[in-house]
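Bench log. Compound arrived from synthesis this morning; before running ITC I wanted a structural hypothesis for how hypoxanthine sits in the protein. Inputs:
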Amino acid sequence: MAPGESSGYTYEEYKATADWLLSQTQHRPTIAIICGSGLGALADTLKDPVKLQYCDIPNFPTTSVAGHVGRLVFGTLNGKGCVCMQGRFHLYEGHAVWKTTFPIRVFQLIGVKTLIVTNASGGLNADYKVGDIMLVKDHINLPGFAGVNPLVGPNEERFGERFPCMSDAYDKELRSLAAEVSRDLNSCGILREGIYCALGGPSYETIAECRMLRALGADAVGMSTTHEVITARHCKLRVLGLSLVTNKVVMDYESKERANHEEVLQSSKRSAELLEKLVTHIVARMDCSRNTS
Ligand code: HPA
């Protein structure tokens, strides 16, 4: 870290934001949902919504990505208290990694126990089709290999330990529940379980990079999520990850296909409804009394 460069927020800043949010709403959510590219409509289905623009929330970063609204929505989903992020923070926007995960610790301080992360991804697994939903079993945090990890810097013990274990990053029980709900909704044909790999972006991957990621064991690739999950696990939130495959990555030098953000937004619009339905039913059947681990 360069001299004079900040290493992150202070505990007091997280706490001030948490207290401010609690002063703005009667809702006391135990579930937080991060809505990925084109998946923000879920937040519009919350009952008794209280909407707060990121730019009005003390200490909150702001988002600049097309398809991301940039606000928190508090409310209830099937009777369960939820807070939704309509728009998340990415490394490619120029945010420091510790800034991108600011909301996660704030959620923990307001009483959230479970984090549901959704995102758009490119399918690396040849069996995946556009519109499939990948239940995230595990991740590869590629920026972390180069030291870009949200926990870099002094450890804040009030959130968690210095060296948190990531073997159970994506909660087994929640994954079973998601698979069960998907079966009940007759949508298991499009639900896959796989490994999500995050890159920094904003450029899409080269053909050689896609081939490398597949060889490493990744099933889908995107530009978000892993830093949020690491921060959530550090402070003992349970995590469920769902990734919407919005395009197939190009693996073949003869292919004329090219990844582009418009395609990502268009495909997520088409399949977002099913993902929303899945999340809504999962939330309805979630056991919110379970202790976190
Ligand atoms: N690559 C990286 N991120 C993405 C992609 C992709 O192909 N699709 C949606 N997000």
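What the model suggests: The mean pLDDT is 92. The radius of gyration is 18 Å.
ITC booked for Thursday regardless.
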